[in-house]
Design goal:
Number of helices: 5
Oligomer: single chain
Strand order of the largest sheet: 2-3-1-4
Helix content: 25-40%
Order of helices and strands: HHHEHEEHE
Length: 151
């Protein structure tokens, strides 16, 4: 699916995502229009899903991150759908993952401090539908967080 030129383009974009199209074209040895066509092709095929700003939530005053591993009441036919719909509405939930196995869902929740987390937990998390069990894991350190791929 990807040729060597596509891989080079993606490696450069991963290493320096703020590089302008003309500068990237110069580095790779392409014209700006040829690079633009390649990027369009990568977007159309779904390889490139866009560019985004990465915001450090700690810089905005959020000091606490908790992972909640949740088991849902699977006797309810719409348990997953109704849970997901409600969980998406909590602004402090920054990630939702689903699993096969004993744990059904993992939520990443951020808060300004422990008091704020307790408030979120009591007022919003515990009111989510179809929860059978919750296990909370307090984040201590993020050792690796890298979305770069070995292309």
């Amino acid at each position: 699916m990807l040729d060597d030129l596509d891989r080079r383009i993606l490696r450069y974009m991963q290493s320096d995502p703020e590089t302008s199209i003309p500068d990237l074209a110069d580095r790779i040895g392409l014209t700006t229009s040829r690079l633009s066509r390649r990027l369009d092709k990568l977007r159309e095929s779904g390889v490139l899903r866009g560019q985004q700003a990465i915001i450090d939530w700690r810089a905005l005053g959020f000091e606490v991150e908790v992972s909640l591993r949740i088991t849902l009441d699977k006797t309810q036919t719409r348990a997953f759908d109704e849970f997901m719909e409600a969980a998406r509405l909590i602004p402090e939930v920054i990630e939702i993952q689903t699993f096969l196995g004993q744990v059904d869902v993992r939520l990443s929740v951020i808060a300004r401090d422990m008091g704020h987390y307790q408030d979120i937990y009591r007022r919003q998390i515990l009111t989510l539908p179809h929860i059978n069990d919750i296990e909370a894991l307090m984040h201590v350190a993020r050792i690796k967080s890298d979305e770069s791929l070995p292309i």
